[in-house]
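> call design_seq(struct)
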């Protein structure tokens, strides 16, 4: 065996140790490189997410406001449509079941609600009798005087001109239609008062003691002011009836 071979064999353990050490170092470097790639990927993903979030946050108030406005408009349209449907049903109910009874009461007949079957033809014939309209008005005036004696004369209405125009328009209308119109107008005024949209406040001041007003009070749809029978307000069904 030559000297070179002997020297190589002698150096072999040392080389093996160096190789093992280098292998371990390479493995560590590979692991560190893998961790660096993972960290870079995570940072890249997070940066993209933050950029997108920032963009959305800048656009969010405007988009959110537009969404809220669209939703509000949709609710308002639905509310208006439902209100119109309910108004149509109310008008039909008044015309079919209430107007004739109110007209009969105004002409001196039974109190509305106590005689459900009112012959419209007979009612018109009775209203057309000589002096009948005058007698009906006289009866209303008598009732009005009794109320005036208790509470004092009715004060002038803020919208008296409009009410006079409506009364004049109803003057040539058959009693049933006129009574229905009067009830519908009174309900509309009461609703505006309850919603806070009327200049006269929650209470509506009555132009006279009418069968329509008395009917609403008997039905618990409305109530008189505690100290003034010339003022009427819509019942707040969410609070008044429970209380």
């Amino acid at each position: 065996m030559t000297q070179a071979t002997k020297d190589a064999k002698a150096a072999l353990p040392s080389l093996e140790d160096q190789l093992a050490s280098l292998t371990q170092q390479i493995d560590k470097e590979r692991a560190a490189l893998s961790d660096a790639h993972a960290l870079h990927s995570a940072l890249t993903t997070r940066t993209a997410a933050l950029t997108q979030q920032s963009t959305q946050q800048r656009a969010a108030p405007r988009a959110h406001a537009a969404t809220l406005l669209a939703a509000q408009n949709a609710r308002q349209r639905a509310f208006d449509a439902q209100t119109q449907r309910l108004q149509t049903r109310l008008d039909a109910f008044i015309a079919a079941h209430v107007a004739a009874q109110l007209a009969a009461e105004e002409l001196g007949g039974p109190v509305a609600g106590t005689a459900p079957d009112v012959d419209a033809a007979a009612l018109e014939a009775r209203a057309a009798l000589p002096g009948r309209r005058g007698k009906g008005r006289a009866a209303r005036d008598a009732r009005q005087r009794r109320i005036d004696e208790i509470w004092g004369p009715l004060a002038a209405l803020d919208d008296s001109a409009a009410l006079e125009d409506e009364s004049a328009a109803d003057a040539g209308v058959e009693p049933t239609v006129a009574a229905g119109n009067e009830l519908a107008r009174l309900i509309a005024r009461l609703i505006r008062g309850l919603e806070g949209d009327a200049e006269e406040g929650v209470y509506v001041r009555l132009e006279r003691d009418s069968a329509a007003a008395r009917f609403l009070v008997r039905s618990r749809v409305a109530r008189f002011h505690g100290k003034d029978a010339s003022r009427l307000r819509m019942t707040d069904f969410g609070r008044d009836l429970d209380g």
